[in-house]
Amino acid sequence: MEKLFTLEEQQRKFLLAQQSFKDGDYHIAEPLFRLVIESAFQHEDYDMYVSAMVWLERILINTSRMSEVYPYIILVNPLIEKYGYEEIKERHELSCIIFNAYNRIGQPQEAYKKLLQEVSQKQYTDLTCAVANNLMYHFVDTGEYQEGLRLYYQMRPLYEKNNSISRMARYMFWIYSFELLYLNKDYEECQRILIWLKERDIIVDSFYFMYPICQALLEMRMGSIDQALIYFDDGLAQTVDLMSIKFELNLVIDVLKENERYKDVIKYQSILIDLLNEHYDFENSSERTTIIQNFSRQFYESQLYVDQLTKVQNRNFYEDLLKKQQQVKNYTLFVLDIDRFKLINGTYGHAVGDEAIKFVADRLKSWNPKHDISIVRYGGDEFIGLIPYGYEVVEEDIKELHKKLMQTPFKVADIETFSLSVSIGVAYTAGRYQLIDQLFRVADAAIYEAKVNRGQVVVKSIE
Length: 463
Fold this sequence. Notes:
Shape: elongated
Largest sheet: 5 strands, mixed
Oligomer: single chain
Strand content: 5-15%
CATH class of the largest domain: Mainly Alpha
Enzyme class: transferase
Radius of gyration: 28 Å
GO molecular function: diguanylate cyclase activity
């Protein structure tokens, strides 16, 4: 299949997506990151693949699509150590902390502080701002405004002196600063912030709704409540996830109570009750229970060795096995791949290619002549079978596996059905000890012979 972009085009699209994100133009950034992810996968450029997914995580978080974030976090976790550079690892860690905070998992405040200290020492200015902003939001959300104000005064010199900080980071810093100062009843400073934001045109479209909400809060203290509610309703109408303004909604209700605007109190309390009921349902749902279970250390460790597409063991599992320099005897190893796989991708598209890989993986998983056989997706359409038995024990089983794969119909999107052709290279050792890596090299050579005529099984002894 023809590549989506050249590597040079891919890099340009990635940089444009990054800049659009920093400017708050998510409607531009999101589709670009998705295209870069697809392109990077085609090129097997896993450094770029991981980086683009980490940036996409933050767009999903910032647009309140938390249910969509979870699969990306799980997908990135096993890859980040190998393919993520230092700063992208910390960006991914920030996404995990935000996600955990949203789902009330762990101790996010301590995690934010630890990460802020780490990135500040490395002088990652924009990332430092992102972590600090999220910690400020945490203080706003929990009502710990004195803690938040200490962070505000700590960070303010950086924002005042550094004009290179992204527009998005600057906007959110001043919005959260407004809220902390509002809680401290410093309404004149709040007014200066709103004027400053508008004069410098820093308001970003993706979070525009926060500006009229802040206007409403200030208007309630310094002007007309009727005008304040016009501002607030404007912000409500543009908010994607009302849970993100739960704190501000409570502040508005408190002011309405103070001013005995009971009809308006009922209106906004109804919104709040619906919102809290919805959140309560989630808190008690199986979805949240599953998320908490899956974010355990045991789950992370297990995912490190699982291929996300096929759910068989992945290359990390195989390479860790090699690091142990394990010698084996009476052992069989096979390498299997799909014949003319590029033609399948080119004819039917990448999605059908993925379905073909999963089709083969499912049959490998159901093929279980011995309980201690390991199936590994080595990469692309190539699989390895690790069999701790001599070839004479499993010879007929391997031939039966090959026959089953060759004869089982593969359906393409309910439109067309055909049989896949697969080739298998087998290597085995008898009574002498050999390294698994040596067996793999012999099996890899055997599969090249098998693919000459396609759909063959070629067997070689290592002795």
